[in-house]
Design a protein that fits this description.
By secondary structure, the protein is α/β, with parallel strands linked by helices. Helices cover about 50% and strands about 15% of the residues.
Length: about 325
């Protein structure tokens, strides 16, 4: 929060009144306030209307244009209905007259901060709902191998990031599966050879979500000439033998707390989809295997084919 007033006594009084509500920076000119706003995001500016140099109205205009997410409260000794309406039309959140009553000031600031918090919570809820809605694509995966690639795409879309890798062990095939996003064809081919054949990574070694600055994957990528910074390692495990890990590349933009929550949400849906795909694969396998001989039941297959032909006809 920034308090702007050329009167040191007013600045100090306002700062003392709202000190328990937020961190406060003080400045005596509009130009100084703009320098602070360029340096760091600010929730609220409280400014005098009449000051040497840039006026409060001019400061409000610049803040509204350059920092639309910052709220603004004007203070003035010469209030009128017209000036109040004008300030509100320009984007001010409120308008207080001097001498400012501390209880009134605190009430206004609390109301603005509460509204901001409610807005942020609503935005977070909307983001969560959008993420959950996008996770419906996972439930359409009938094969376990599909789940990892779809989950990787969802992570890249929802965070968003550009590069990612999925490495997974399939119970039905002897080699690991792998998917790449954001790499060119030559890089993907080189990494596939390393991760699947020459230097495979044990997916069971990654037990929980972690953001890693150094790992076996870092070393592998370095060996093949691919530079990277931090990587989020996201394990995805089925109920049976299906195991995998998704790697999301930070690429210079650190993962925030809200992004890590989004990762955990998508990973949880991916694990649920993986378990459903496991059950489907097991049920499909049992349908074609004789319970007594444990071999494929040719008569059943022929009957199923005949039924499909009749249905198609």
């Amino acid at each position: 929060m920034v308090v702007v007033d050329d009167d040191r006594l007013i600045r100090t009084m306002v700062a003392d009144a709202i000190a328990d509500l937020a961190d406060v920076e003080l400045c005596d000119t509009g130009e100084a306030a703009l320098q602070i706003l360029r340096r760091t995001p600010i929730d609220l500016v409280i400014s005098d209307l009449t000051m040497p140099g840039m006026s409060g109205v001019e400061l409000l205009d610049q803040v509204s244009r350059a920092h639309p997410n910052t709220d603004f409260v004007l203070l003035t000794a010469n209030a009128s209905v017209e000036s109040a309406i004008g300030a509100l039309r320009m984007g001010a959140a409120d308008y207080l007259t001097k001498p400012v009553r501390e209880d009134e000031l605190v009430l206004v600031v609390e109301r603005i901060l509460s509204r901001r918090q409610l807005f942020e919570e609503n935005e977070k809820l909307r983001d969560t709902l959008r993420t959950v809605e996008s996770c419906r694509n996972l439930m359409r995966c009938s094969e376990p191998g599909e789940v990892y690639a779809v989950a990787l795409d969802l992570l890249l879309q929802n965070l968003p990031r550009q590069r990612g890798i999925a490495l997974f062990r399939r119970s039905s095939i002897p080699t690991n599966g792998v998917a790449f996003r954001g790499f060119d064809e030559a890089e993907a081919r080189t990494m596939r050879d390393v991760l699947v054949d020459s230097k495979p990574i044990n997916v069971d070694s990654i037990a929980q979500l972690e953001v890693l600055d150094r790992s076996q994957l870092h070393d592998t990528l370095y060996d093949v000439g691919i530079a990277t910074t931090a990587i989020a390692a996201i394990p995805v495990r089925g109920a049976e033998k299906e195991r995998g890990v998704l790697w999301l590349f930070e690429d210079g933009r650190p993962f925030g707390a809200d992004e890590l929550e989004r990762i955990e949400l998508i990973a949880a849906h991916a694990e649920l989809a993986l378990r459903n795909a496991e059950r489907y694969s097991q049920a499909k396998e049992r349908a074609f295997i004789d319970d007594v001989t444990s071999v494929y039941n040719a008569r059943y297959l022929l009957q199923a084919a005949d039924n499909e032909l009749q249905r198609a006809g």
